[in-house]
Pentatricopeptide repeat protein
Amino acid sequence: MPFRALRLFAVPTSPDTLLASSLSFASTLQLAAGKAWSRRVAAHSPLEHARKRGVRSVGGCQTASKPVEWEYRRQPGPSRLGNVTQPLSFRDNFLRERGKGTTHETSFMHAGHSAKLHTTASQVGKQNRHQHTRRRQRHLPSDLRDLPQRHPKMSYLAGVTDFDLQLSDYLPSPEDTHEPDEESCDLFDELPPEHHSEVLTPVATAFKEPRPSYLNAPRDWRALCQNLLYLVNVRKPSLSLPALLDYHARYPHHHSTYSYNLLIDLSIKHHSHPIATRLLHELRQSGIPEDIETYKLQVRLYVHQAQWNYAWGYVRSLQRENKLPKDENGRPDMPLPIWLELCRAPKRRRSRRSAQQGGAHDGQSSVPPFDTKSFQIQRQLVNSNRPSRLPPLHETPPYAIYCLVQLMMRAGDRDGALALTEAYFKAIPRVLDTKKMLVCLRVVHIHMAFSPKKSGLPKYDDARKKMHSLLRLHPSLRPTSRTVFLLLSMLRRAKKCGTVAWKQLAFFKSRWGNHLEDRRVLRRVSQLALKEGRMDIVQKLKATVRLERSERRERLLEESVKGGPNRAPTEKLYRLPLRQVYPSHGREGRLWFRHQASIYRQQARRRKRAAKAHSTK
């Protein structure tokens, strides 16, 4: 088998040669496969691509600028591609014939035609003595001349995918189409029988469907919605909101209520309230009917802008216009999704604005502080307009409990919110999926954040006790890195904040696993340790973050080579939560960079004080 595979090489071989004895079986197969493919590409390339180095035109004829001999041989064997000849390499011929001074023969053959040119080394030297040596031109195949030009200093190497075998002028001869006999095709004659099972045994590998490199033009409104979901959820990196709006505007005939609701929801999550308002206006101007989802998004937009009175007036106007469903008595009913939006409160989002703009400074909230009396009025209005069809407690979605507990805590009813949470955790099934478990954890986070104790260790101890008491009520509840991050934020005004945070992180890791230690938690512990002056903890965390960063870089490189992260192929796409679409790796990296600058400044101050103390002594 190795000797039969060596027929593909353009070197003289025999059973007693050193080359055959030095090459292994696997190396021989690899080299033979590569040589067979190169011969196939050369067979389908035009004649201009077959011109070799060292040949130039002098006076209308072709002469060899160096003493080169081209030998063409017919390569027998099962992989022979018809009547195609392959020359020996330039380096092998030149090194072998160097110093002989014999007549060199140059033979050019293509598709059965040949032209021989006989020159000697002395004649070539006389012809080239008074000739200007022109720089050799690189010729590409005719199939590749339409490719974009590269940098003039960089040579373009045509890849295998650039060749289109159907566009070649190559026509097979009758000798190429005949089927070889079984003896010449049997490549496993010389393979030992004990290795047949290793070669012929099929290996089962997981098949991964390739992702499309481009999106097809949508033919209906469903295809447009699926393309938008693909651009938001699947494509990496995800497109920005203006790019999604431009893509949606390219197909005005396929606009639908679902496509507008998707973009409005994404605009509100991006805190792009003017864009959401404009999309709602375009939806009404185009005559597309609205649904309950559209009404809910309009109420959410008002609530996010701290305009709860406008949201309540909008819902009352919908009831007067009979746009909402009716109850059993024929009166306008309050849908549960809209009612839950009225129970929510605006998020206190920090903004970075300069003092010249007249807005909030860095570290201040862009939303006015909460007023307990206003939330009490809001709670009374919501309680007096409940939906007629409320599910029982064990069938209530966790998001509804989250909205109600949030409103009760901001209205000052902490005991009622705690009683509702405990009753709900005892009533729901003992096994929860990941989505419901995360929403239930958000309810626990509300109780931890609204602790009545003062800041520092008292507030930290109270939040830790509430967290453990609520987690014991359900076996499926497990803390996440967000839980640890929220708990450690209450140690900012503690005296031994770094030491307590380091011990608490070790306790969480030993009980619930290392997945609770993400970059955000490590940054919070490092900040608290730097505040306390525990530089030993800071150095340990820096080494951990450096190792995690290198592992993440290797993982991303592996995913890019494989074509992206492994995801189950689905025919239909759905909306993903914003934490999965935008993981905020860039923001966390920027915050880590600022924290490292603080570490360097602290170390510089320590060295300066140490040098000053040493000089005084």
Summary: Residues 585-616 form the longest helix (32 residues). The radius of gyration is 38 Å. The beta strands are 55-58, 61-64, 72-73, 86-87, 104-110, 113-119. The mean pLDDT is 73.
